[in-house]
Task: structure prediction
Amino acid sequence: KPHSLYALLGAGVAFSTAQIHDENMLKPTDKVKLKEQALGISGGVGYQYRISNNIGIGAEYRLTQFLSDYMDGFHPLNSKKLDMSMDLRISLSYFFKVESGGGSSK
Result:
């Protein structure tokens, strides 16, 4: 099949070191925490097209919900939402041919 559509789901740990370039953007009630690590839960969809037996191109969209509101370095006072990230990946893949290692058959 030259076309592959897939869904993905996963979890991991993310580490963040934030920088605040303009402290005037912060409100006095905002809480600041520049270093954070948090569990993230990801989900997304992807598509891959096999150009040939060995070459494929694809795209993948992923959304990650972090279990922290400090991944960007601050937490607004009235925020009831956790931080989230989205990314779109474009890929070029090369597939190796693998010989099956069965014995000889007669």
Notes: The mean pLDDT is 88. Residues 54 and 98 are 11 Å apart (CA to CA).
